[in-house]
């Protein structure tokens, strides 16, 4: 009887704690993404996709800083009229990649989903995965710093997603810090090791996309610091196992023509804006070749994209 009472007390405590955390989550979650400075979240640009008009994004890009440094949705829009959004975050782990994918599908149905492959080699722990699961259930842990900007509406209203990013997730940098790309893709039979759990995450992400009718593509952007032929071989094997497309721009430099003296912002780790324009030009041709995307540039419902393009060009053409 004593043990039953003790177990009951513990159960009541856990239930009460869960209720308190759920209530706190409703209060702490951002109520309006109109002003990203009030979000207190690192991924403000990435979650700006929630403010886009429903079912208006055709191409979704996921990954770490390699993704948001190298793919420019506004350039893609200018060249093709394809709508795209980069849900990239710094040091993104694949468990969080899946969270961002599921979040994007709350109001979008992209026809193409691109995963930048550098994140595939970033190890994550079981503790980190568990924390991500907890944050998905109790968002108070994700937005705990928002108490600094509380307003009365935080206690009475649910979230409204009205803010979006003019750059659609791209992070602009025109800084030049030269690097050496000499022979970084020298052929080898070696195969880099992909963490087993990461391979499972990629399979889950691919399955999630296919179940929703999206074409899943693995994409390696140019990076002389992070990439090598062993990693290329590993991702090639994974792509073959999954039966999905894989594009490695590190082996396409005769076409992309990255100049590691001019097109990198940090000695070959990430491309800068001039390098990103080259990467996006290649992506534009690749997506056109798929023959499954429509040019929306003259459609009335996409007028805000043309307005965002004007603001984008005022910055990048200075």
Write a structural description.
The chain is α/β, with parallel strands linked by helices and 318 residues long. It has helices at residues 2-28, 44-47, 65-70, 73-80, 94-104, 126-137, 196-211, 229-242, 253-256, 273-290, 303-316, and strands spanning 59-63, 84-88, 112-116, 215-220, 245-248. The chain has a five-stranded parallel β-sheet with strand order 2-1-3-4-5, with helices on both faces. Helix 8 links the parallel strand 4 (215-220) and strand 5 (245-248). It is globular and about 75 Å long. The termini are far apart.
In short:
By secondary structure, this protein is of the alpha/beta class. The chain has helices spanning 2-28, 44-47, 65-70, 73-80, 94-104, 126-137, 196-211, 229-242, 253-256, 273-290, 303-316, and strands at residues 59-63, 84-88, 112-116, 215-220, 245-248.
Layout of secondary structure:
Elements: H1 2-28, H2 44-47, E1 59-63, H3 65-70, H4 73-80, E2 84-88, H5 94-104, E3 112-116, H6 126-137, H7 196-211, E4 215-220, H8 229-242, E5 245-248, H9 253-256, H10 273-290, H11 303-316
Parallel strand pairs: 1-2, 1-3, 3-4, 4-5
Q: Using the alpha-carbon principal axes, give the shape.
A: globular
What proportion strand? 5-15%
Major sheet: arrangement of strands: 2-1-3-4-5
Counted beta strands: 5
Query: What is the radius of gyration computed over CA atoms, rounded to a whole number of angstroms?
Result: 21 Å
Tally the helices: what do you get?
11
> How would a textbook summarize the main sheet?
5 strands, parallel
User: What is the first-to-last residue Cα distance?
Assistant: 77 Å
Derived structural class: alpha/beta
What series of H and E elements makes up the topology?
A: HHEHHEHEHHEHEHHH
Query: Helicity level, as a percent range?
Result: 40-55%
Q: Output mean pLDDT.
A: 85
Low-confidence stretches: 34-40
């Amino acid at each position: 009887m004593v043990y039953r009472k003790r177990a009951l007390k513990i159960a009541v405590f856990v239930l009460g704690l869960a209720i308190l955390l759920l209530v706190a989550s409703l209060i702490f979650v951002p109520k309006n993404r109109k002003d990203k400075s009030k979000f207190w979240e690192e991924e403000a640009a990435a979650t700006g996709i929630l403010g886009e008009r429903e079912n208006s994004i055709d191409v979704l890009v996921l990954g770490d800083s390699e993704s948001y440094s190298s793919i420019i949705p506004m350039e893609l829009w200018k060249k093709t009229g394809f709508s795209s959004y980069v849900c990239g975050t710094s040091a993104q782990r694949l468990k969080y990649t899946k969270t961002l994918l599921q979040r994007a599908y709350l109001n979008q149905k992209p026809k193409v989903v691109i995963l930048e492959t550098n994140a595939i080699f970033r190890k994550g722990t079981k503790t980190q995965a568990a924390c991500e699961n907890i944050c998905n259930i109790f968002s108070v842990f994700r937005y705990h710093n928002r108490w600094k900007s509380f307003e009365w509406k935080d206690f009475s209203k649910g979230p409204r997603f009205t803010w979006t990013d003019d750059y659609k997730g791209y992070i602009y940098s025109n800084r030049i810090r030269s690097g050496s790309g000499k022979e970084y893709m020298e052929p080898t039979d070696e195969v880099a090791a992909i963490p087993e759990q990461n391979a499972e995450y990629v399979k889950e992400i691919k399955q999630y996309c296919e179940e929703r009718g999206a074409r899943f593509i693995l994409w390696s952007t140019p990076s002389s610091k992070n990439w090598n032929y062993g990693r290329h071989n590993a991702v090639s094997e994974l792509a073959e196992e999954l039966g999905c497309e894989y594009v490695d721009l590190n082996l396409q430099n005769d076409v992309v023509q990255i100049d590691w003296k001019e097109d990198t912002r940090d000695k070959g780790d990430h491309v800068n804006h001039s390098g990103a324009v080259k990467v996006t030009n290649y992506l534009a041709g690749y997506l056109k070749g798929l023959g499954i995307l429509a040019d929306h540039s003259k459609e009335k419902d996409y007028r805000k994209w043309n307005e965002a393009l004007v603001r984008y060009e005022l910055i990048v053409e200075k």
